[in-house]
Known about the structure:
By secondary structure, this protein is mainly beta.
Amino acid sequence: MLKRLHILFVVATIFTSVAYGQTSITDLPYACQGSIESYWVKGNNGVSNFTWRVTDPKGNEVPASAIQFLNAGGDTVKINWNFPGMVGGVYTFHIVEKSGMCTGEEYTQDIQVNTPVLYVPISSFVNVKDNLIDLCSNGKFELEVEHKDSKRKFINELSKWSDLSSAFSVKRIVSEAGTYTVKVVDDLASCSFDTAKVVLHELPKVSLGDDISICNSLGATIQSTVDHGSYYSWFVDGAQSSATGSSFTIEKPGVVSLTVKDDYGCEGSDAVTVSGCDPRNIRIPAAFTPNDDGVNDEWYIPGIEYDWVLTKVGSNNVPLPKEGKMKVDNLKIEIFTRWGKRVYSLKSDRKAWDGKDESGSPLPVDSYHYLIRFEVNGEKIQLRGPVTILL
């Protein structure tokens, strides 16, 4: 039985609106390296069996693994145009129809397969280096496909981004990690694939801690905590300083911010407000438990430095409080019972009240009253309030 077969080219999901026989596109059907496309023949379909071979421009057979039969009769196949040793040029389909004891003549059909070996790729991501994009997790990037020959035009109906179902555009915005593949076809039927890989990088996590107060002439040192990143930029009230390390010393109130950049240009930042100490707003504990359990056994004022530290300032050793403590002069603390009897006063050898009276005897659980006097920069401050002994 002799039959004349006709091979019909159906390129899955990509070429749907332009017929292959149009002379304005090409004289041969064609495919691009990297595509997976379906083809079928018209014969005594549903009855006959069809065998397929595909040969390359040198007459070598395409590996059988590249050809997938989609039905039992073999009238439809899917070909993966991407296999080892693939070259560009004219490939040939060889199809034979067989029905019962009858075998038809071999039918052949040529197809043009474009590869980068045959054609210089016409798709080029103009703003991507080595087809790799390092993108910060909060960033966006515009991919742009550009023909190397400015006289050529893309056929939008035949060109496609592999992950999009919308109409083709030479530009698109990406913000997620992944591999982005584009297939483009120009007005001379040249086609090419190109791929760009987007890698997302997390922003540096930067912490400067809580807002702080400057309570002495030394200022305060802010220590940053950063998970990654090597380039530090410190700012005070929006103005960049010359500091580039992981810590920063500020000598007056203001807003301190830090921006850290990593090798990919990703930035993370944090800011703290540095205020001056108000001696009237010193935190004074309202109660303590002098029961010798090692927890809250003594009453003291956290914001005042009791021990002066000799600190080198210029050529002199100056007594200054520790960092973060308020420098006060003429400090005097007195504790009274609710009836006005003084039971405790700060002495030079005492740094905190242990809940005992002047003679060293434990005082009972009760509410007491404190009177605190001191000077800050010549200003006399007096603070009053209750303190309770608990057990």
